[in-house]
């Protein structure tokens, strides 16, 4: 299926020049996570997550749905390629909120390298939990400030680790090398991530949207709005109706067909899976929210 660049640009609200420049890359990277939220609704509800471009385009653009990293960055890759950017797909191991002593997990996050006259950049519009609104120079050790975060790439042997600065200090997000990924790498990882019965994303609801005003994050029934002026609101969603309003108003998602069934699948506020317990303990030491600055 041919990629519909016009439809994608309309979906994210971009009407600027169509040329492969850093200015255009920055604009697209800013608009995408505002218009197309991260969510794992399909893995949680046991629905397939196909990665062919036609399916991704139909879901995220045509149906105005959200999606997770493989879908988000596949769509972004297609748009950049259509605009003439030189794009290399990469794959990372997520280490976000993992204990320091934990062994490295599998490669299960898609990201992109974009080569420009100014040098190579990292582009990633799909890291749910800590979305960022601008591409990053592939320059190890350089602290880079976006509108909502301070990030850097730290060398780790032959790999690089993307880190973000929280009040408690630097925290790692994911680890990757510059070896190009194959589509088969994404297919295998996507199958594991979207179907494993014990995976975080098949047992918990996560959503995130990043606008110029607020970062909205949902972890099961806990909705956090963190505003650019430093204010933060935390709301516990106690009913299917409250969840429906949050998904539609905070994340811009279309109405869910079975919101009662979705709400019933969510762990209650007083019952947390072990990975989430570790996440919450880590955050309380330096920040009260998974996407805090």
Features:
eight-stranded antiparallel β-sheet; Arylamine N-acetyltransferase fold; five-stranded antiparallel β-sheet; alpha+beta; 293 residues
Describe this structure in words.
There is one protein chain. The chain is of the alpha+beta class. It has a domain of 87 residues: Arylamine N-acetyltransferase fold, CATH 3.30.2140. The chain is built from 9 helices and 13 strands. The strands form 2 sheets. The chain has an 8-stranded antiparallel β-sheet. A 5-stranded antiparallel β-sheet has the order 1-10-11-12-13. Helix 7 packs across helix 8. The protein is globular and about 50 Å long. The protein starts with a helix and ends in a 9-residue tail after the last helix. 38% of the residues are buried. The C terminus is likely disordered.
Radius of gyration: 18 Å
Number of strands: 13
What is the CATH C-level name of the domain at 198-284?
Answer: Alpha Beta
Main sheet: strand order: 5-4-3-2-9-8-7-6
User: Strand-and-helix sequence, N→C?
Assistant: HHEHHHEEEEEEEEHEEEEHHH
Indicate the low-confidence ranges by residue numbers: 272-293
Distance between the termini: 40 Å
Shape descriptor reads globular
Strand content: 25-35%
Q: Name the CATH superfamily classification of the domain at 198-284.
A: Arylamine N-acetyltransferase
Biggest sheet features = 8 strands, antiparallel
Could you name the CATH topology of the domain at 198-284? Arylamine N-acetyltransferase fold
Counting H and I runs of at least 4 residues, what is the number of helices? 9
CATH architecture of the domain at 198-284: 2-Layer Sandwich
User: Structural class of the secondary structure composition?
Assistant: alpha+beta
């Amino acid at each position: 299926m041919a990629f519909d660049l016009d439809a994608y640009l309309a979906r994210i609200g971009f009407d600027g020049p169509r040329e492969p420049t850093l200015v255009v890359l920055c604009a697209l990277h800013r608009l995408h996570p505002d218009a197309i939220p991260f969510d794992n609704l399909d893995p949680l509800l046991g629905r397939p997550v196909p990665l062919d471009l036609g399916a991704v385009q139909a879901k995220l653009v045509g149906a105005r749905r959200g999606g997770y990293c493989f879908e988000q960055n596949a769509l972004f890759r297609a748009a950049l390629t259509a605009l003439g950017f030189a794009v290399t797909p990469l794959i990372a191991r997520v280490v976000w909120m993992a204990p320091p002593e934990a062994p490295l997990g599998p490669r299960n996050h898609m990201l992109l390298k974009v080569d420009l006259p100014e040098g190579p950049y990292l582009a990633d519009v799909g890291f749910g939990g800590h979305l960022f609104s601008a591409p990053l120079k592939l320059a190890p050790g350089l602290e880079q400030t976006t509108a909502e975060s301070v990030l850097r790439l730290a060398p780790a042997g032959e790999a690089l680790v993307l880190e973000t600065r929280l009040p408690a200090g630097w925290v790692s997000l994911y680890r990757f090398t510059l070896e190009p990924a194959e589509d088969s790498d994404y297919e295998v990882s996507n199958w594991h991530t979207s179907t494993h019965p014990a995976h975080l994303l098949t047992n918990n609801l996560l959503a995130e949207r990043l606008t110029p005003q607020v970062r909205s994050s949902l972890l099961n029934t806990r909705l956090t709005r963190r505003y650019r002026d430093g204010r933060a609101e935390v709301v516990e969603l106690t009913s299917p109706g409250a969840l429906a309003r949050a998904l539609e108003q905070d994340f811009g998602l279309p109405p869910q067909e079975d919101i009662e069934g979705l709400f019933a699948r969510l762990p209650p506020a007083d019952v947390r899976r072990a990975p989430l317990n570790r996440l919450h303990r880590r955050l309380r030491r330096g920040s009260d929210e998974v996407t805090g600055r």
